[in-house]
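Protocol step 4 of 6: structure prediction from sequence.
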Amino acid sequence: ILMVGTANAEHYSQEREINLLTTIADQLAIAIENVGIYEKEKEAVARLTELDRLKNEFISMVSHELRTPVTSADGYISLFLTGVTGAVTEDQKKYLTIVKENNQRLLVLINRLLDFSRIETGRFSIKRELNSINEVVQAAAQSMKLPLEKKHAALNLKLDAQNVNFMGDKEKMAEVFANLIENALKFSKEE
């Protein structure tokens, strides 16, 4: 309730005074409504922040839980491929190699999820060490050798940069270049 009175016994009679009071009342009503809207938005932001935190926690937990069995399977596949468990036929090697490649792709996806989670929570770190860009590009090209062969594509490297050294994270940079090659393969025709 908004009550307005006068200090003397006169009533508000002039139209101008009544219009002024009506305008003030309207503005106060809008201000009170805005406070209510602000409080609701503040609650919504708090809820969204909590949901975002829970999402990041979930991604991190799932990534860690998936990584353990995938890493274990990768180790056992490597044992089979090296012949530690006994002789392996060429067909078995071929199929185990396919499984190992797919396992490696799965590990890359899991690591990306972990990186995403670390970025979101501010725990993402980049190693700062001196690296050769040529070595990074060659490592990325080597990691994409099988996908290139499957698509009958060739990657021609021209590594003649003047300053080949940079400060940064070798693994992250190799991943960037591998992603570029992967995207190029995805959007190109065979051969």
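Step 5 (inspection) to follow. The first strand starts at residue 129 and ends at 132.
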